[in-house]
Amino acid sequence: MSRLYRFARPLLFQIDAEKAHRLSVEALKRGLVGRRDIPVDARLRVNVAGLSFPNPLGLAAGYDKNGEVPDAALRLGFGFVEVGTVTPLPQEGNARPRVFRLPESFAVVNRLGFNNEGHAEVAERLEKRARKAGIVGVNIGANKDASDRVDDYVTGIHRFEALSSYLTINISSPNTPGLRNLQKGSDLDDLLKHAVAARDGAAAIAATDRKPLFLKVAPDLTLDDIAAISETAKRRAVDGLIVSNTTLSRHGVEGRRHSDEQGGLSGRPLFTRSSYALAAFRRALGPDFPIIGVGGVESARTALGKMEAGADLVQLYTALVYAGPELPIRILTGMMRYLDKTGADTIRQIRDTKVDEILEREPPLGWELVRA
Q1: Which of 192, 199, 259, 363 would be 253's cystine partner, CB 3.0–4.6 Å?
Q2: Which region holds residue 212: left if phi is over 0, alpha if psi is between -120 and 50, else beta?
Q3: Whole-number Å distance between alpha carbons of 152 and 146
Q4: DSSP letter assigned to residue 54
Q5: Percentage with pLDDT > 70 across the chain
């Protein structure tokens, strides 16, 4: 943690968590967080789904919901940034307060509910940066009161296909009632059929290469769920999975202040659960299917742990709340030190090295019981 953030964090933690987050976005927007000396190392470069990432560390969706600061976030050292979740129409989300810190656990519970400014506002911002360098994905969702949620995703794909480096279909937030049902059976198959067709159609109209289409899933899945999702994702030819969103489990934070708040839990307690799901998806999908690992990444060791569990790329968000804007550089520096120590030629060599070991362990507590 930088000295400045070590001084500022106790003050920020006196402020409502959502307001503090807003202050951090404003600081990036106004240039109050200076450009970092980003490590550049060819060993960190990763090619995934036709995109060349300068390093495997990304900023997860949820931080920059409205596409206000993707370039400022890239300047912190991230190899890619995912904005959103964005819905067709603006929506306020759930009632406040709706974000809660659990400092003893380095965790956060949120029930934001896809609060965002809608397609039009976010698209206008992304149009202004269209010719800038850097990989910026767009995470799309459905409005809470949508009569046809599949149509909301199709609309988002058409709106952002030309403005994004890749697209993510978010059907795994626990804070929009019924949304996670889209992860199941014929509902998932129908969604992916229409989403892939929309992506292909948008690319054809624009006469451009098709943008990668990813699917973001929950950690609260059974092994049967994982097998079924994997089969559908391969059959419908999506380009990759993001594993995972927040969890409804409270294992590891029981009795902590705010642990009984409704919503999804993120941060350190999510690492084991999401990594188990990640390893299970890697085994089900095989070695060639791209996966982005998310959940509890807070250091070089945990980022490497996601890759050992099967991730090509990793993302973080909650750890920034506790470690501050220096965190991406520290993680990249730690990755390079690990490569120096092991003599590995590329970070890609780490992938999948502990999939079997992880899956041989006992599943996380409540693995077969926590369902959305």
Answers
A1: 259
A2: beta
A3: 7
A4: S
A5: 96
Q: Cα separation of 355 and 346, whole Å? A: 19
Contacts of 262 (CB under 8 A, 6+ apart): 111
Tokens read off for 275: 């990594």
Confirm whether 173 is a catalytic residue: yes
3-state helix, strand, coil in the chain (%, to 5): 40, 15, 40
By DSSP bridging, strand 107-110 and strand 99-102 are antiparallel
Burial class (CB in 10 A: 0-12, 13-18, 19+), 155: buried
Token pair for 249: 């489990």
CATH (residue range 3-360):
3.20.20.70
Global pTM? 0.95
Spatial distance between the Cα atoms of 177 and 334, rounded to a whole number of angstroms: 40
The domain limits of the chain are 3-360
Catalytic residue among 165, 173, 230, 274: 173
Q: Can you tell me the distance from the alpha carbon of 321 to that of 165, in angstroms, rounded to the nearest whole number?
A: 26
Map residue 37 onto helix, strand or coil.
Answer: coil
Give CA angle at 136 (345, 328), nearest 5°: 55
Asked whether the beta carbons of 129 and 71 are under 8 A apart, the reply is yes
Please give the Cα distance from 164 to 255 (Å, whole number): 42
Give residue-wise pLDDT tens across range 25-76: 999 999 888 777 888 999 999 999 999 999 999 999 999 999 999 999 999 9
Residue matched to tokens 């973001």: 216
Q: Where are the alpha helices (DSSP H) in 236-366?
A: 271-285, 300-308, 318-323, 327-342, 355-360
Q: Which tokens go with 31?
A: 């240039």
Q: Per the structure block, which two tokens stand in for 58?
A: 């990304």
Residue in the structure block whose two tokens are 């269209």: 130
Write out pLDDT tens, residues 219-237. Answer: 999 999 999 999 999 999 9
